[in-house]
Every structure is written in structure tokens, then in C-alpha cells.
Amino acid sequence: MEEVEAKRLFQKLKIRTLLDLALILPSSYEDTRLASRIEPGRVQTFEAQVEDRRIRGGRMQVRFFLPALGRRISGQFFKATPYHQRLFEPGSRHIIHGKVSLFNGWPQIAQPRSLKEYGRIFPRYKTVLKESQMRALIENYVTERNLFAEGLQSEEVGLLMRLHFLERYSEAGAPPPQIEGEVVGQLKFIEAYNHLRKLRSKRHDYPALKALNRPIEPFVETLPFTLTPDQQKVIAEIQKDLSQKEKAARRMIIGDVGSGKTMVILAAAVMAGGDRSVLMAPTSILARQLYEEACKYLPRELKVALVMQGNSEGDYREADFIIGTHALLYLEDLPEAALVMVDEQHRFGTKQRALLEALVSQGERRPHYLQFSATPIPRTQAMMESELIDVSLITQTPFEKEIHSRVIGRSDFPELLRHIEKELEEDHQVLIVYPLVEESEQIPYQSIDEARGFWEKRYEGVYVTHGRDRNKEEILLEFREQGKILLATTVIEVGISLPRLTTIVIVGAERLGLATLHQLRGRVGRNGLKSWCFLYTNLQSSERLEKFCRTKSGFEIARLDLAYRDSGDIVDGTIQSGQKFRWLDLAEDEEIVRRAKERLNNGITE
Ligand code: ADP
Ligand code: MG
């Protein structure tokens, strides 16, 4: 097969690697070896001669004589085309193939095919390619030699060869390998290994603009608290990254809300010092918050500036540490920085991410690039992603939050009201999250518009906002100072901290992914106040929500989210999509991914 042709077929199959191809397994096997007796219920192949036939309407019934067996069998065609009629002329000889059944005690085959090639067991592939193209591709590329060259070991090679070339690689008459037990484990391994290799091949490293290694001890010593072990670990990883000049850092730091990522950001800014760093935040509230923290904790000699649309502070042209919103991306005279950081990376849109990417992707030398995210991903996924970008996880929080989570329903409503009133008396705040702003027939829960009358009539200080609300930042700031109850949709700010917020009620909680619920829950108890998270649902029971209530770690929740993907609960679309593995299960197969990674590290010398 010509290489160009193979390339075209690879594209058609939407695959890139040899192992991608080898992992497209036959969906079934076609046994075209001549049968020595008629066995109803099986798909069989016979040498046959057409004795006579009857055509009525579109139907054709053909009587075949099987010379080798000295028996007769009939073939039924329900829609006999002129082609069929010509093909099965009386007297013509065929190798017929199809599923044998009994009709009134007589053997027959429905829609028998006339084979050109026979005497073998052919794998059948269900792909967009023609069967013959697919077989040619497999024959050409899935060879023992190629599979070994990809780094597989003999058991894995043996398995793939038996699956694709059953006859050549099994004992005569042996059935195809069952995809179960150990075989599944091997396929999972190959899948993980292939995926890791693809990621690794996509990674390109560039030299850094500068090595950044100013000491951070003076900064750390003046902090009013000791850094958690995880904060220290991540800061050390970043120190190692930034002190290199040969390679610009590309690292994603993932930690739950409240795990103290800001201190890590500030420590990195200290390392960069006068070589300048830029920090981008998704909203102006968050940018200001970071700016205030930077001013509070960083050594005086580090000049900090804030850049936002409209109100900025300090002169960014002079600053060592420039904090801002995406307004930064549109500055024409943004000075070159040796370190670029993004906070709450998960909250930027695709367009902004592309702009950001452009900011750190120019020139032969690149700035060090650190991204911070509060969307925990399952540990196994983090292990995978770290092929493409280094990943640090912060799993501890500086102080254990006391949050009580509970699933509630309609009958708990009076109790919920009593709870809310008690909290309001203590000068605490309540957030109620509704699935929608306006009424909808599709959703069996109240919308904000339907519910607000109830709250406003009964309570003072009720505020309302939602994702598309232009004034949401002002409303949130006003609510923070003087509000009591906030009605909102899920899309409101994550970053702004509401220190007096102690209760969150999520209406229609089963409609949301666990990761989203976890983000929402992370908004209460920011300052260590005892807090509550109520998941309001019409469901009689939900194991998924109950498990959520018992789980605190965002990383474990990310794993549960994966594990419940196929569960009966409705989960918002974004989280369900994107499963790219056929066998591998990121929620369960940490060990397999670990082994695949080891193989990759041992097998390939760079
Ligand atoms: P994140 O950005 O990860 O959500 P923050 O950086 O905002 O979390 O930290 C949450 C709170 O914890 C802040 O009030 C911060 O000052 C505080 N904090 C951070 N690190 C520590 C620590 N090591 N000990 C005590 N408090 C800390
Ligand atoms: Mg933060």
C-alpha cells in the first residue's frame, strides 16, 4: 500500500498512530471455511450449485445442491435485485455463506452471500472504510515488528495479532479471544500507553527568557501563617522550574477553592522580582482581590500595578508585578515579562485562552507560564495531562472547613426556612442557586423569576443576579456588604469571597455535575464559619448526591463524577462529553496508567 494512500485512510479513520489503528478491533469474525455438515443456528459456508429457483414479486427462493455433503439447502432473498437474479442463474456454482436456520424441518439460509474468497476466518471491521481497505491497512501496518517498535511487549503484541489475524496466530479452530478479564486489562494498558505517547509527542519545550531564582525566604518569613506542606511542595516545584533557563516552565497548579493558591502565586512573583511578572484573573473583582493581597503580603520593594478597564492602579510600565483582567491582553505597551501567570484558568473562555496562549508563544525564548485552576481533575487524568504540561496538585487546605452537606426535598422546606432564619439572625448570609432565570416547562423546578416574590415578601435584603446580568459585579459587592439572601444561577462569580456566607441551597441539584456542585459548595465557610450545603431535589433518592455529601476532596469528587457518568442522574452536558477511551476508565485505572507511564519512561530515551 502506498504511503499517501495509507495517510489518507488514517485521516478518514480520524487516527494518528499505529496503535490507534491496532486498537480498532474486529467487531466480529467471518468463518469462510467450508463446513463439513449443516449446523442450524451457525453462520456457515458451503460449496453449492443452483438447482432451480422461484421468483415471485420481489422474492426469490433458490434451491442449492451441496455436492460435498450430498444435501440440499434453500436460499431466501426477500428483495431479489436483477443482480441477484443474474448471479444465481440455475446451474451456476457458488460458495454460499450465511446463517443457517430450519424452516419446517428444512435447512435454509436467509440472504446468502456468494463469496469470492473463502477458506479462512476473516476479521470484520465496522469503520467508515470499505472492508477491503481496512483489511489492507491492517495487513500492512499491524505487524509484530511494528508493534514491538512501538514499545509493546510480547503478550500485548500477541494479543493484538491474535485479535486481528485469528487464524495465523491461534491454534487451528481456536475461537477468537474473548474481550474480558486479563485481555481487557491489556487493552486498557495499550490504550493508556498510546494516549500518553501521543501527548508526549505534542509537547514542545522552548528556552526561557530568563532564569528566575530570587530567594523567597524573606517573603515566607513575614507571612502571618506557616505555609501548608502542599503549598511548600508546589512552591519548591516552581522554584525548580523557574530557575532553569534551558526550558520555559509550563505548569498547571490545581487546588480546591481555599487551598491557598494565592500564596503560591505571590511566591512565584517574588522569585521573578524585577524581571517582571504578569498575573491575569478572569474578573475585575478577583483581579482587585489579588492586587490587595499582593500589596498586603509582598515585600515593599516589589512594585505592583493593577490593570483593568477603566480603573487601574499604579503604573504598569514601571511595575514588577502587573495584575489585571483580560484588559491586559489589549495593552499595546505591556512590558515583556519573564513570568506569566493565570489565576482561575478554568474560567476563561476559549477566545481568551487563545490570546493568552499567543502571549506566551512568541519568539525563540518564552516566558515561564504558570496556570492556576480550582477545577480538580481525577488524579489519573492529572497523570495523563502531565505529559503535555507539568501538573501540581494541592490537595490540602490550610484549615479544615466545617461544611455540612445534605440532600433535601419538598418536605424539608419548613425546616430549611427555620435554618435560614436562624443563620440570618446571626448576621450570616444565604445563597440560593436556581437552575434558570425564567420559567421553563422543561425543568420541574422554580426559576428565579418564579421564586423571587416568595423571598422578597418574606425577607429583607434579598438580592438577585445571574450570569447574563450586566450589573452582577456591583450587585455582588453590595450584597457582600448589606445583603441577606442572594438568588442566583450557577454561573455567578466563583472568585469573590463572601466571608459571611454560611448556607448554600442548590435547587435541582441532580441536574448538575458533582464538580459544579463542589465549586458551589466551596463558596460557603470561606472564613472558617460553620456552614451548610443543601442539595434540593425532587428525586426520591440519589446515591450520587449522597456520596457527594460524604466527600470533601475535590479530587475524589472529580473521580466520582467520572464514575457516575453513565448513571441515571441528569448531568449537565459539558461534563458528560469527551470520553475518549474505549476500555480505559480514568475513575478506576490509576494503576494501569501508572504502569503505562513507567513503560514510556523506560522505553524511550530522549
Ligand atoms: P484559593 O485561591 O486556592 O482558593 P486562597 O489563596 O484565596 O485560596 O486562600 C484562602 C484563604 O486561606 C485566604 O484567606 C488565605 O489568606 C488563607 N491562607 C492561605 N494559605 C494559608 C496558610 N498556609 N495558613 C493559613 N491560612 C492560609
Ligand atoms: Mg484563588
> How many H/I helices?
22
Biggest beta-sheet profile: 7 strands, parallel
- Report mean pLDDT, rounded to a whole number: 90
Helix coverage percent = 25-40%
Number of strands: 21
What would you call the shape?
A: elongated
What order do the helices and strands come in, and which of them pair?
Layout: H1 3-13, H2 18-22, E1 28-31, E2 43-56, E3 59-66, E4 71-77, H3 82-87, E5 93-103, E6 106-110, E7 113-114, E8 121-124, H4 131-141, H5 144-149, H6 154-164, H7 166-169, H8 182-202, H9 217-222, H10 229-242, E9 250-255, H11 261-272, E10 277-280, H12 284-297, E11 304-307, E12 321-324, E13 339-342, H13 350-359, E14 368-373, H14 379-385, E15 390-394, E16 403-408, H15 413-425, E17 429-433, H16 448-458, E18 462-464, H17 472-482, E19 485-488, E20 501-507, H18 514-521, E21 531-536, H19 543-550, H20 554-563, H21 573-576, H22 590-603
Parallel strand pairs: 4-6, 9-14, 9-15, 10-12, 10-13, 11-12, 13-14, 16-21, 17-19, 17-20, 18-19, 20-21
Antiparallel strand pairs: 1-8, 2-3, 2-5, 3-4, 5-6, 5-7
Helix pairs in contact: 8-22, 10-11, 14-22
The structure holds adenosine-5'-diphosphate and magnesium ion.
Adenosine-5'-diphosphate binds at residues 225, 227-228, 231, 255, 257-263, 374, 398.
Domain Helicase C-terminal: 412-568
InterPro entries: DEAD/DEAH_box_helicase_dom (IPR011545), Helicase_ATP-bd (IPR014001), Helicase_C-like (IPR001650), NA-bd_OB-fold (IPR012340), P-loop_NTPase (IPR027417), RecG/Mfd (IPR047112)
Pfam families: DEAD (PF00270), Helicase_C (PF00271)
